């Protein structure tokens, strides 16, 4: 009642925190009032000495985002392109590679996903999420292996113990040069025993027609897509200080006639036409106990990811199946409440097994590759505020160790890999000054790392045939980043600004070395990549209901030395890196009649071309400018919106262009492409829930 007529609302956050903010129609879904756990304890983003973007789940749904990949590029310094097959390529601050374990952390709720030997970022649909946190810069101390360019945390909505909620949404659309699309989504929160036990279920089903053609075969709209997902979350609070949660994720993608790899004239690639059916199951369990001055956390996850692919590659039939199983455990104790010293200590265990089955008769390959990874780590971080001064000093350290081994079977002949053990000590230090309660200026130095990997025996064998000497195992790589940044809320939250400049030295980066004209490659450690860059994010709220935002990131990422046998020379632009990324948007919401609110949004995303100098024959991609627009009406329980994605019908190459000779003769030049202009309508219905 005290907020009535103010245009403000109050809502509850985990940990007993109430956040007062503008209503959902009065500030275009502000994300600045989100409480984040980027340092594994609840804090305001403005107080954290880390370059950080947080995007709330409600804002994602009102923007009409279909997948997390569509949302991520709104963070400065982050570049993403969708491969159209359930996978996306993510670059953060110039850190991007297609080799080894994940180069950027990819957390699904509390624990990370890893591709073990090849970076993988499984698709997550942007429905019923609590928030996404994008942490830029190495996060090796708290988030561990692979968090070199940064860490992406995808946090789903938990079960609410007290409030019933049901919501559903459906959409229909049409794609230029393609066909009809449609989907339905739903979510239900049920307090089974109010205050003690609750369950939340969310599900989606989406179908998208293709748009790439094969004129020679007389077929059209070949790259259709289908997504089916289910998430279940359970929360049980048997006593006041103990909370136990469990969750189940299921994802199934179907891409029966290939992904979005196409030519400049809208034809499907002839060099790579792979039917893909990725499936991902994830089981999570966690418990938190509040001791008053500290919170104890234990989390466990089991991930089962399978990626079958079959079809044509370079004109020959190929069948490839990737299977990854990961079991992770984390135990940590973190301070809670006030006081000059805030701290976190913990330990981490991870067992991962990856199995690759490859049958490619064109090159006489019948290969099974099994990789076993066993990792463990201990970590700690502390922040001290001396004498109540507006200064925070943070220091952290992580010790990591991983054993890597496995075997390969080539045409029935078993070869045991040599194996290796990798160790790394990874510090982070920062100092932050808070000149006012809503401002932070900081300087930091941090190290990120990844274990090495084993050389595929297929590459070793082919390399010997062509006189190329390849190492049996690759060394680990690491990165140091030095950063100066600041963030502030100004003029009573009318203006929010965040910026950073940084320098990174990424050593021993694994790169590909072509093996003659076979289309295959070996792996070798390079001297590394050096990067320097800057980021800026500005949000302006000049009047109630109107939000203007702009983000940009520039990175100059170049190789530190030449690599023989490749196109890499000293000073060459790093592979698969967009030097400049940017986004901007205008959001407006206002009451237009009693009980009726109007909303409108237009957004722009920009990415500079990517190249791949390791393979001299490959060609650069294109500058990409994508514009999305949306207008809608919100009633008490119903919302209706019209949307246009890729309004200007951008069809450039989002990746570098592959240039490959196919078995039947000729050359294929292709790259990943964005979905053409798609126009549609979406309606949603909701009951219950919190304000």
Automatic annotation (TrEMBL):
Domain TonB-dependent receptor-like beta-barrel positions: 240-647
Membrane topology: Multi-pass membrane protein
Domain TonB-dependent receptor plug: 46-151
Alphabetical keyword list: Cell outer membrane, Ion transport, Iron, Iron transport, Membrane, Receptor, TonB box, Transmembrane, Transmembrane beta strand, Transport
Pfam family, one: TonB_dep_Rec_b-barrel
Cell compartment(s), UniProt: Cell outer membrane
Coiled-coil annotated residue ranges, if any: none
Stated family: Belongs to the TonB-dependent receptor family.
Protein name, per record: TonB-dependent receptor
Organism from which the protein derives: Sphingomonas colocasiae
């Amino acid at each position: 009642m005290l907020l009535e007529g103010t245009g403000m609302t109050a809502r509850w956050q985990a940990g007993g925190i109430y956040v007062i903010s503008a209503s959902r129609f009065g500030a275009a879904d502000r994300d600045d009032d989100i409480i984040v756990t980027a340092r594994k304890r609840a804090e305001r983003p403005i107080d954290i000495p880390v370059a950080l973007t947080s995007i709330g789940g409600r804002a994602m749904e009102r923007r009409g985002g279909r997948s997390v990949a569509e949302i991520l590029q709104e963070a400065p310094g982050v570049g993403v392109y969708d491969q159209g097959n359930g996978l996306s390529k993510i670059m953060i601050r110039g850190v991007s590679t297609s080799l080894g374990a994940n180069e950027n952390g990819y957390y699904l709720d509390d624990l990370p996903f890893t591709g073990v030997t090849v970076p993988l970022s499984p698709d997550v649909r942007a429905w019923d999420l609590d928030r996404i946190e994008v942490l830029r810069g190495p996060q090796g101390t708290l988030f561990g292996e692979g968090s070199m360019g940064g860490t992406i945390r995808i946090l789903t909505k938990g079960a609410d113990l007290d409030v019933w909620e049901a919501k559903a949404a459906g959409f229909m659309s049409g794609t230029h040069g393609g066909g009809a699309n449609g989907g339905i989504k739903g979510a239900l929160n049920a307090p089974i025993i109010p205050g003690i036990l609750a369950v939340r279920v969310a599900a989606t089903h989406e179908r998208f027609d293709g748009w790439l053609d094969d004129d020679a075969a007389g077929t059209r709209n070949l790259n259709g897509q289908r997504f089916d997902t289910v998430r279940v979350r359970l929360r049980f609070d048997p006593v006041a200080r103990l909370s136990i949660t469990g969750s189940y994720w299921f994802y199934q993608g179907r891409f029966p006639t290939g992904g979005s790899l196409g030519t400049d004239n809208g034809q499907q690639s002839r060099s790579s036409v792979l039917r893909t059916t990725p499936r991902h199951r994830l089981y999570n369990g966690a418990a938190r106990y509040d001791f008053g001055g500290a919170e104890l956390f234990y989390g466990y996850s089991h991930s089962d990811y399978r990626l079958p692919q079959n079809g044509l590659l370079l004109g020959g039939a190929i069948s490839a199946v990737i299977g990854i199983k990961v079991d992770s455990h984390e135990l940590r104790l973190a301070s809670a409440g006030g006081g000059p010293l805030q701290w976190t200590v913990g330990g981490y265990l991870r067992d991962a097994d990856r199995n690759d089955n490859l049958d490619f008769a064109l090159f006489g390959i019948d290969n099974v590759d099994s990789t076993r990874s066993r990792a463990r780590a201990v970590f700690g971080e502390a922040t001290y505020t001396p004498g109540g001064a507006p200064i925070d000093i943070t220091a952290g350290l992580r010790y990591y160790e991983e054993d890597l081994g496995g075997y390969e079977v080539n045409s029935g002949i078993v070869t045991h890999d040599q194996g290796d053990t990798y160790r790394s000590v990874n510090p982070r230090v920062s100092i932050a000054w808070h000149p006012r309660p809503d401002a932070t200026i900081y300087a930091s130095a941090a190290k990120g790392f990844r274990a090495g990997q084993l050389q595929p025996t297929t590459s070793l064998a082919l390399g010997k045939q062509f006189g190329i000497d390849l190492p049996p195992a690759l060394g680990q790589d690491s990165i140091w980043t030095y950063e100066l940044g600041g963030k502030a809320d100004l003029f009573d939250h009318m203006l929010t600004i965040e910026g950073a400049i940084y320098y990174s030295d990424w050593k021993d980066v694994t790169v590909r070395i072509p093996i003659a004209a076979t289309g295959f490659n070996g792996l070798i450690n390079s001297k590394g990549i050096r990067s320097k860059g800057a980021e800026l994010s500005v949000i302006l709220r000049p009047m109630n209901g109107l939000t203007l935002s702009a983000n940009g990131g520039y990175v100059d990422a170049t190789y530190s030395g030449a690599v023989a046998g490749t196109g890499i020379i000293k000073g060459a632009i790093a592979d698969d890196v967009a030097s400049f990324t940017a986004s901007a948007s205008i959001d407006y919401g206002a009451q237009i009649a009693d009980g009726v609110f109007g909303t409108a949004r237009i957004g722009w995303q920009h990415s500079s071309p990517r190249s791949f100098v390791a393979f001299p024959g490959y060609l650069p991609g294109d500058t990409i400018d994508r514009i999305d627009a949306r207008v809608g009406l919100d009633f008490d329980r119903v919302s209706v919106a019209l949307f246009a994605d890729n309004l200007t019908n951008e069809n450039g190459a989002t990746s570098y262009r592959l240039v490959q000779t196919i078995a039947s003769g000729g050359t294929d030049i292709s790259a990943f492409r964005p979905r053409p202009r798609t126009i549609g309508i979406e309606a949603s219905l909701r009951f219950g829930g919190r304000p």
